Amino acid sequence: MSMSDELAQLGALHQRGVLTDDEFARAKTRVLSGAGSTSGSSTGATAINSLRRSRSDRWVGGVCGGIAKATDMAPWIWRLLLVSLVLCGGTGVLLYLLMWILVPLEAPPFRPEQGGLQAG
Fold first, then answer.
1. What mean pLDDT do residues 85-99 have?
2. Which residues, 6+ apart, have CB-to-CB distance to 46 below 8 Å?
3. How far is it, in rounded angstroms, from Cα 5 to Cα 11?
4. Dihedral sign from CA coordinates of 79, 81, 84, 90
């Protein structure tokens, strides 16, 4: 459904008295901001595409630190999960190696006093 169709339906509901002025204003704001048209799969794809290995929170390759940053969880939880996968059949080793190879490293921090990006 397009944004204009949603706004037309909201207007019709408001005119019939189903929505109060306050409810209509909040719904209209939500539609105009795009919150009503986003799907769960697109936000999941955005999260996966923004995944980066950590430069600062790393023990080996920064995979668990990067996942922790993306999910707002403690990195030790991801490390514990990975170790348990290693102990239960060794799939954790394969998963970690694939993520180390395929997930890019996060950009280096900007250092204005050095005139640009910090190397490595």
1. 87
2. none
3. 10
4. negative
